Amino acid sequence: IFVSDTIPCLLSPWSEWSDCSVTCGKGMRTRQRMLKSAAELGDCNEELEQAEKCMLPECPIDCELTEWSQWSECNTSCGKGHMIRTRMIKIEPQFGGTACPETVQRSKCRVRKCLRGPGMEKRRWKEAR
């Protein structure tokens, strides 16, 4: 019996595509099939695996901030006042990422007591006359 050496490959059907390799953004997915005929019966050059790109919704990007600045000077020269410090937004949140927290903080400060005595009032009144 004459046997041709061009026996077609016997292949299983392709499997379902795998899940995308990522949970968000760009990834890859694959599928496979099996060689069903015995390899001795001839070379089989059919591909047994395929890969393709897949795209899921964009990944969330969280807010990113710089470090806090130094505290400012107290805004009064005597008595109670306040000082502030700030930080900048480096990356705005996108696609449901965490929102930015406060970028300005205020703190109370107290400088030496203001001199407000009866002597000061009398002196001013004399100068005004």
UniProtKB/TrEMBL annotation:
Q: Tell whether Glycoprotein is among the UniProt keywords.
A: yes
Keyword entries, A-Z: Disulfide bond, Glycoprotein, Signal
Q: Does the keyword Chloroplast apply?
A: no
Listed InterPro entries: Spondin/Thrombospondin_T1 (IPR051418), TSP1_rpt (IPR000884), TSP1_rpt_sf (IPR036383), TSP1_spondin_dom (IPR044004)
Q: Supply one GO CC term from the record.
A: extracellular matrix
Q: Which residues form the Spondin-like TSP1 domain?
A: 63-114
Q: What organism is listed for this UniProt entry?
A: Tachuris rubrigastra
From the Swiss-Prot or TrEMBL record, give the protein name: SPON1 protein
The Gene Ontology biological process annotation of the record reads:
cell adhesion
List the SMART domains.
Answer: TSP1 (SM00209)
